[in-house]
Amino acid sequence: MIYFFVLLAVVSSVYVGEQVCTTFNADATLCNASGYCRHDGTICVNLPCYMVNEVAACRSGPSGSGIPTGALSSKCDSLEQFSLQYDNVCVDKGDGKLNFAFVRFSKTTDGSALQTTGTTPTGVGALAATEANMFALYTINPWKSPEASQSAATLQTELEAILDRYILFYQVLIETTNSHPFYLERTAYQALQLIRDQVGFDYTMRRAILPKIWQVAEIALFRIAKFSPAYYQTNYYFLNFASCPYSRRELKINGQLHTVRIDWTDYLYTVNGYMQVYSYAAEQFGIRNALSDIIALRPTTSVATANAINLDTGFTAFYLEWTWTDTNLVVVEKDIKLYQFDESAATATNVVKQITTTITCTTATKTCTTGLITTPITSATTRINYYFSYGPGKCVDKTEVQCKLSIEQGTQCNYNAGLPTDYKCS
Known about the structure:
The chain is of the alpha+beta class. Helices cover about 20% and strands about 20% of the residues. It contains seven helices and 16 strands. Strands 5-6-9-10-16-12-13 form a seven-stranded antiparallel sheet, covered by helices on one side. The protein has a five-stranded antiparallel sheet with strand order 7-8-11-15-14, with no helix packed on it. A two-stranded antiparallel sheet has the order 1-2. The longest helix has 25 residues, at about 205-225. The chain is globular and about 75 Å long. Keywords: Signal.
């Protein structure tokens, strides 16, 4: 009788997402292709959780489960329910949900950031402000930037050229019947995502380009007032738009697990204008303790664009009401404050300031309401926005991502990986 013996060897395998990033120190290509690491030119470092593309790096299971331990599982959790709208697959440890401030929309790869698409491509800077060229402008793809090289400086140059062209086209974009607000909204959120996620984009670059993004957002609002004068609202997670006539007397803006209601019943207007609002998640600018999105009120009594965009600089006498739906949030009335976020502040230390107002909270309805705000919200050169918060926070309390994105501290917070603390920001 012949016996066959089969020897089974246990082979140790390395699974996808299991190798720590420093394993790839010597190979930048493998590092950047891993989906959870990036090469900084010297070593291979971890990506922030929201930037991870390889979900296996964030997963781990109990001993004996057979689930490999991901390289980033100690600091990130996997999102087990995905949306095709965005690329996010991981979140910070313990968050339990996707943070709207860090949604990454899937990028389209067609077209160019440098020129139009068509039989006769035209460079961004050569487009004259005409209706025919408006449709050509729509074909320019900011997602392709940085296109000439992969540097932050190139991104700034290319993105500013695109935004400048939209600003130059403002009359065409607002007045033309075939102009759809979506294209303006898309350009604004694409630009915000690009400057948030570009590793080399620093404080100075961000401060330089943001005013152009907000100008495009304002152009979108004025187009919206003509496109859908009775009511309009769109939500893009970290940037939202809404508009309604003054005669409606209130407007609600939805954010993540909260709503902000603007009530102007005490405003004695003589011309029925439009309450126009764009709002954005505060944490994308490093603000740690915000309870609401930042609400940018841009009221107007005229959507005529003969010379310039005109805001209602006399708009005053309004309330702001914050409603929360987060069942885990415990609100203490005395700790709730209203802050302004001044997009046009000449001095960085003036970006965030507390507003003097009473705030009354009602636990039963989960609402906090300000007293009557009587200071005009805007002038020809000033853009004041509002958000509810526990306080502005300090650099030392910020996470790595918050630290690098911070623009409200007066100067850029500095992240130092070598600090012997959990939060390595100063």
